[in-house]
Structures are given as structure tokens and as C-alpha cells.
Write a structure and sequence with these properties.
Strand content: 35-45%
Largest sheet: 4 strands, antiparallel
Helix content: under 10%
Radius of gyration: 16 Å
Oligomer: single chain
Strand order of the largest sheet: 1-6-3-4
């Protein structure tokens, strides 16, 4: 799963932050993530595929803010199955301070899916290559 570039902030100019603007960012990922803010890698999940991780970092935000996250569920690359014969459920929540929380309005796209149609007896997966520079500020996430 990927949550591509979503722009936060309605300001028309870049606002330089002050140290007092630091916000705590929490990422809850089932099972792993890499987080980019404004085209820069900010955090990579350091917990090896443990169910329902949470990783917290302090962020000094610069607005407008583009957030892009690559999320991976703990699924077998050939079958899409998780922990043997289970169908994975992958999940993600991002919370930045008291004002930014991911929700259904964020754009998301799956690049690895399986087992297709929930077929456990003959599991197949669909792999789609990640778009180039999906984390960049200028990435067109309209599709």
C-alpha cells in the first residue's frame, strides 16, 4: 500500500518553522513503513514486521507540507498470505500533533495485492511497479 503525496496547509508561501513549532508525529503501521515529508526521507520503521507497530518522531514542519508514505504488510511475496495461511489486513494511521490525522480522504494505491479474490487454495498476487519519484513534492497523485 502507498499513500502518495498529500499536500497539507493552505498557505501560498513557504513558512520557515521555529523550534517551538516542533510536532510529535506518530505512525501506526501494519507492518512496516517509510515516511517522506516534502520530498525528504524522515523515518523508516525500525521494527521488523511486528504486528501493529507505532513509531514516533519529532518533526519541525514546513508548510505547505507534502506527506508520502510507503507501507508494507507482512505478506509472502509469492502468495500474498500472511503468517502461513492468513489473508493480510494491512493498516495505517498517521498523526502529526493535534491537527493532522490520516483518514479516508488521503489518496492511496496498492502496488502489491494478494491473494487475488481471497483464493487461499491457489493464491496469486498482483505486483505493480512503484511510480518514479512517488515521494516527491511534484508527484501527480491525481490518479
Amino acid at each position: 500500500m502507498i499513500v502518495p503525496a498529500t499536500t497539507w496547509g493552505q498557505r501560498q508561501r513557504l513558512v520557515k518553522p521555529r523550534i517551538t513549532d516542533t510536532e510529535r508525529l506518530h505512525v501506526y503501521a501494519d507492518n512496516w513503513f517509510a515516511l517522506y515529508i516534502n520530498g525528504e526521507l524522515v523515518a523508516v520503521d525500525s521494527i521488523k514486521f511486528t504486528p501493529h507497530n507505532v513509531v514516533s518522531v519529532d518533526v519541525l514542519p514546513e508548510y505547505p507540507m507534502t506527506i508520502a508514505v510507503l507501507i508494507k504488510d507482512n505478506a509472502d511475496k509469492d502468495t500474498g498470505m500472511e503468517y502461513g495461511t492468513n489473508i493480510g489486513d494491512g493498516g495505517f494511521i498517521l498523526k502529526l500533533g493535534d491537527h493532522v490525522v490520516s483518514d479516508a480522504s488521503w489518496r492511496a494505491r496498492s502496488f502489491f495485492h494478494g491473494p487475488i479474490a481471497g483464493n487461499r487454495s491457489r493464491p496469486e498476487v498482483k505486483h505493480t511497479p512503484l511510480p518514479e519519484q512517488w515521494w516527491s513534492i511534484g508527484f501527480d497523485d491525481s490518479k
